[in-house]
Amino acid sequence: MVNGTIRYWAAAKEAAGKSEEPVSGSTLAEVLDSVRAAYSGDDRLLRVLDRSSFVVDEYPVGTRPHAEVPLDEGYVIEVLPPFAGG
Asked: Model confidence over 6-34: pLDDT tens digits?
């Protein structure tokens, strides 16, 4: 298990009630599972996560399976909800 930070942007930030928080996990899937468990009582963030794109250490995840995105100590995950405009 490695430690890092998850940063929430736009609707994700509003739903989480914060801009970032420390997280632990060896893959993107593990981190997202732990975030979903932590927010299970309020599904606003869960709905946003289902629609979001993710960037790990400045590299877009794209369509890669989240279980196949490894994380290194000190990683940063950006949660980017869809947005209108340019």
From this structure: 999 999 999 999 999 999 999 999 999 99
